[in-house]
Write a structure and sequence with these properties.
- The chain is α/β, with parallel strands linked by helices.
- The protein has helices spanning about 10-15, 45-55, 75-80, 95-110, 120-125, 145-155, 170-175, 225-235, and strands at about 65-70, 85-90, 115, 135, 160-165, 185-190, 195-200, 220, 240-245, 250-255.
- About 30% of the residues lie in helices and about 25% in strands.
- The longest helix is centred in the middle third of the chain and has 14 residues, at about 95-110.
């Protein structure tokens, strides 16, 4: 049986290799040459866009408290911290992703960041305080009750950045391989907001070593107009919305704040 103990002096690469072959993110250039993932999430232009647009709504990230849902490997968390956030609380439910966040935090030296292991939705249900800003990038379309997530974000924060894939009949007809085995549409209501949900099954991807979806074997996707409508229903009527190019489905990036 091979010993799990390290036999070499500490190094960035040796630390990253604790999760060899399982990283999504390429590490920031400041760490020097190293091998991790390929996605340039530490240089993601969505974060500076969000910070700029939030400021247009009067929500400045610098000096603010920020709640991030599903940080994955901490790339966006780091960018938010670098923008001067007073404190970033990032909640991650995937055990391996949480541990990778801790590795990234230590290697990069993230400041004013607290990674929590647990269910972000349950966290928002149970806390008794609010945050200045909420970040939910690539989170909503992995949920089984996405309107509750929007409700809780509106309840627990004063402004949000949201990036999500949404259900688009035209796109999914043209790309049936991305529709997730579309089933019947579910008409439902949550806290007075009527909406439709489209089931998306992960299928074989859920067994893939780099699966970073939700906890269930499926999720429910919302339609674009109903995402915006839900936010208005829960009080976030000031919105800046941009259509996003995305190969896996129609997507939007947006910021919103209470009207």
């Amino acid at each position: 049986m091979e010993s799990p103990y390290a036999r070499k002096a500490p190094s960035v690469q040796q630390t990253l290799d604790l999760f060899k072959g399982k990283w999504a993110s390429a590490m920031p250039p400041a760490l020097g040459p190293c091998e991790a993932g390929s996605a340039r999430l530490f240089e993601d232009p969505r974060v500076p866009w969000a910070i700029e647009k939030l400021a247009e709504l009067g929500a400045t990230v610098a000096g603010s408290t920020v709640l991030e849902l599903g940080p994955l490997e901490g790339a966006h968390t780091h960018a938010i911290s670098q923008a001067g956030a007073a404190a970033v609380t990032a909640v991650e439910a995937h055990p391996e992703a949480y541990l990778k966040c801790l590795v990234a935090k230590e290697l990069i030296g993230m400041q004013r960041v607290n990674f929590l292991f647990g269910d972000a939705v349950e966290f928002m249900r149970t806390i008794g305080h609010t945050y200045d800003v909420g970040f939910a990038c690539g989170f909503l379309y992995h949920m089984t009750n996405p309107v509750e997530v929007l409700e809780l974000l509106c309840k627990r924060t004063h402004a949000i950045f949201l990036w999500t894939v949404y259900w688009d009949d035209e796109f999914n007809r043209a790309h049936p391989e991305n529709s997730g085995g579309a089933g019947p549409v579910h008409a439902t209501i949550h806290q007075g907001f009527q909406h439709r949900l489209h089931r998306h099954d992960y299928g074989e991807n859920i067994a893939y070593g780099k699966f970073w979806g939700g906890k269930a074997s499926h999720a429910f996707w919302m339609e674009k107009d109903e995402i915006l409508g839900a936010l208005r229903h829960f009080g976030f009527s000031r919105q800046i919305v941009v259509q996003e190019e995305n190969p896996n489905g129609s997507a939007l990036r947006m910021v919103a704040a209470r009207g």
